[in-house]
Design goal:
The complex is a heterodimer of chains A (312) and B (245). Chain A contains 11 helices and 14 strands. Chain A has 312 residues and is of the alpha/beta class. Chain A has helices spanning 49-56, 77-80, 98-108, 113-126, 142-153, 172-187, 199-205, 223-228, 243-252, 270-282, 297-304; strands at residues 4-15, 21-33, 38-42, 64-69, 72-73, 83-86, 160-164, 191-196, 208-213, 216-222, 234-239, 255-259, 262-267, 286-292. Chain A has a 6-stranded mixed sheet with strand order 6-7-8-3-9-10, with helices on both faces. A 4-stranded antiparallel sheet of chain A has the order 2-1-4-5, covered by helices on one side. With 245 residues, chain B is mostly helical. Chain B has helices at 2-22, 27-60, 63-68, 74-107, 112-116, 119-140, 145-160, 162-171, 175-187, 200-203, 214-240. The two termini of chain B are 32 Å apart. The chains are: A alpha/beta (312), B mainly alpha (245).
Chain lengths: 312, 245
């Protein structure tokens, strides 16, 4: 059974005051997320990521289509006991302390007092807020609010967690901590669905991604599959290359650049790779490494999607 | 809430001292009437101005996103908000009632049973506050605080002059106007029902005190509960259909 099953999901918003017109935020979205995977939901601002997450959390009503989470309709309160959600730019009650806030959320899930006290302590430790347990949330920085937001999303030991831009507002240290929490969740078998535009994080964490643009699904699949297709040749690193060999190699490869006492070369296809390697080894050069050059997710994203986004 | 209690204490203290010097023979009546009116007005101000922000503040600050993704149904959210404000109002009314008793004690000349006889009046005031809160909550479920305050205040004032609508209906020239005013009479909450008990029940000695009409209190209770229930159902229906963009 899929953890998330989205079928033909469409959402129209009515905009304008007098003459209302329809704007399609989501267009016939189909998506499944399997148990135990970390699923990245990518797209530029306005792509429909938050809209999708809000429909999943029943904060928005779909125009058409359906969402099932853990095999149940999105509106099921029983199902919501088994999931966690972090909204984008979360806000919580200002005058509660971090400890009070988590206790309040824990009680919404029906967690009983002694277990809850222990759980709140552990969570504050996990998200690095143990020292701020008794500080009111209004005194929290954006990063600290994000951390307490993650804590409230996982207080019920959920089977699936939905995080809307969990890295936003965090410094590099905070991002590393969130990455650690997410991988920790995967180790426990929790399915993680998160939207992000911080691509290196998605690349480092996700098993599968979906790329959304203008409300439409552009691509979905295992990250290595999406990127594998886009292999753009090989990078060869050589050492101890004589001037004569170097001149010969320059004619064979697509790019050549010295870096310190080494030489970095790029061969666009397998034929050139073979020719470069043969020439280099015949010329007595030392082969340091040969690596396939894949488009990073970031490069892929910008090439495929950003080209269509008008610049401000 | 604290400010309203401080203001109430100030009003009652100043008027208790001033009345001793200004009015001749009517001090007890005035202090009880003033106290009951103050409980009603301060309570109404809290019911309206906190009531209208109950839902809107959650939407504006987006705290509702995290809350409604938990196993909390939308009707539970609305009912929780309502009962929470009623609990606040009950504390407020209780403290103000004690304040009124202290003013009566300071004034003197009221027999002990008179202190208990303000309780039915306070009970009806509390019922009217429950109705006002439900009214504010309905508007709060779909409108801005400023508009909600305006609508609630308008209906609260109109509700105190509800019987005039019957007069208008009776004197209307056309049948359409008559039906319009009659419909308004039944639609607008009748707040004058809740002010049927006043100082006459309290300040007279037991022999002369106007007896409490418990049947009227019973019907007013039924009216208050049914009207508030209908308003809450409406608030839930409106809130359940809302999109949180």
């Amino acid at each position: 059974m899929s953890v998330v099953q989205i079928e033909n999901l469409t959402k129209d918003f009515l905009v304008g005051f007098w003459r209302k017109r329809r704007v399609r935020a989501l267009d016939n979205l189909n998506l499944t997320v399997e148990p135990g995977e970390i699923f990245g939901f990518l797209g530029p601002n306005g792509a429909g990521k938050t809209t999708t997450l809000k429909i999943m959390m029943t904060l928005l009503r779909p125009t058409s289509g359906s969402v099932r989470i853990l095999g149940e309709p999105a509106a099921s309160a029983a199902m919501r006991r088994r999931i966690g959600y972090l909204p984008e730019n979360p806000y919580f009650y200002d005058y509660l302390t971090a400890e009070e806030m988590l206790t309040y959320v824990g009680r919404l899930y029906g967690i009983r007092r002694p277990a809850l006290r222990r759980k709140v302590g552990e969570l504050l430790e996990t998200v690095g807020l143990a020292e701020q347990a008794r500080v009111q949330l209004r005194k929290f920085s954006k990063g600290m609010t994000q951390r307490i937001g993650i804590a409230q999303a996982i207080i019920n030991d959920p089977e699936a967690v939905f995080l809307d831009e969990p890295m936003s507002g965090l410094d590099p240290l905070g991002r590393r901590d969130v990455r650690r929490i997410i991988t920790g969740l995967r180790e426990k078998g929790v399915t993680v669905f998160f939207s992000s535009h911080i691509l290196p994080d998605v690349e480092a964490l996700c098993d599968r991604v979906a790329i959304l643009h203008k409300g439409r699904l552009r691509e979905t699949g295992a990250l290595h599959e999406i990127l594998q297709v886009k292999i753009e040749g090989h990078e060869i690193i050589l050492a101890r290359v004589s001037a004569e060999t170097r001149a010969g190699l320059a004619a064979l490869c697509d790019e050549i650049r010295p870096m310190g006492d080494r030489l970095h070369l790029r061969a666009a296809d397998a034929g050139r790779l073979e020719a470069v390697l043969a020439r280099a080894l015949a010329g007595g050069a030392e082969l340091i490494s040969v690596n396939p050059v894949r488009a990073s997710l970031e490069e892929y994203f910008f090439r495929e999607v950003a080209a269509e986004v008008p610049r401000p | 809430m604290l400010y309203s209690l401080i203001l109430f204490a100030l009003v009652m203290t100043v008027s208790s001292i001033a009345l001793g010097q200004l009015t001749l023979g009517y001090e007890r009546k005035v202090i009880v009437d003033l106290g009951l009116s103050a409980i009603s007005i301060f309570g109404t101000l809290i019911a309206i101005f906190i009531g209208i922000g109950l839902v809107h503040k959650e939407l504006e600050r987006r705290t509702v996103y995290a809350l409604l993704s938990k196993p909390v149904r939308r009707h539970e959210f609305i009912l929780g908000k309502y009962l929470g404000l009623l609990a606040t109002l009950s504390v407020n009314v209780a403290v103000m009632t004690v304040g009124l008793w202290l003013s009566m004690l300071y004034q003197g000349g009221i027999e002990p049973a008179g202190y208990a006889r303000i309780l039915p009046a306070v009970y009806l005031i509390f019922l009217s506050l429950a109705l006002t809160t439900a009214l504010a909550l309905v508007f709060s479920a779909f409108s801005t605080p400023a508009l909600s305050a305006l609508f609630t205040l308008f209906l609260w004032i109109a509700g105190h002059f509800n019987y005039d609508l019957l007069e208008f209906a009776a004197t209307s020239r056309t049948a359409a106007m008559r039906r319009f005013f009659q419909a308004l009479y039944y639609l607008v909450p009748n707040f004058s029902n809740f002010t049927s008990i006043d100082s006459r029940n309290v300040i007279q000695s037991a022999a002369y005190a106007q007896p409490v009409d418990w049947t009227a209190v019973g019907w007013t209770t039924v009216y208050g509960l049914v009207y508030s229930g209908a308003l809450l159902a409406l608030a839930v229906a409106v809130f359940s259909r809302r999109d949180f963009k």
